[in-house]
What we know:
The protein is α+β, with helices and mostly antiparallel strands and 245 residues long. The protein is 16% helix and 29% strand. It has two domains: 1-24 and 220-245; 26-218.
Amino acid sequence: MKNVARTVAVVAALSVCLCPVVAHAQVTLVTESSGTAGGTTSSGYFWAYVTPGGTIEENPTHPSNAPAEQNVYSVTPASPWINPIGTSTWISFEPNTQPGGTAAPDGNYVYMSNAFTVTAGESFELLVLADDTTAVQLDPGGDFLSSPDYPSAVNCSSVPVGDAGCTASNEAIYYFTAASFGVTSGSSQHTIGFSVDVGATSGSGPTGLDFVLYDPPTAPEPSSLILLATGMAGAVGAAYRRVRA
Length: 245
């Protein structure tokens, strides 16, 4: 009976001692999507529109007079879109492209975040919503991200695995580090690109993008939690064996 009591006490002590392992530095908001009705923004740009045939236009509705890089607009979410993440804003190349508003032609709508500083050793968490879907790229010509936390998709057209959708069930969460940008020492400026696809069967549909980037992640990565659980189980087992000896 004493050995059992000792084991329980050791397990409790280990639980207390191991708790700080999952703690980390204060989370910082690096950048997020935002815009206004007038189109000005401090956190991203609409870059280009690529037609289904591959033709690049500067703006799908005003290709002749839009700048190659233009500010984005705030968009008010409507069902099935969920509210924006945290303090961010749903954005689009034009106002009122939310569900029930002005439909956008099929194609890819390319957005780019403002440049932000990446320092060696940093880790990031990126949360993304999009309609219909979006691919996420680190820097122009950089790596495309895949999301380990992407669940089954519903709504927002047929969302392929790995792409962000517009509901709580298909919000994509991406984890990456400074090394993903090629930063292994010092610091430098980088961007994140989003290629938002509209592929409605009618030839047009609602479109929008919402994203938030944190440093470090707001919670441990799933792989980190598995390692932590494995370590705790091993430590408890070793303590139990010592008590029985």
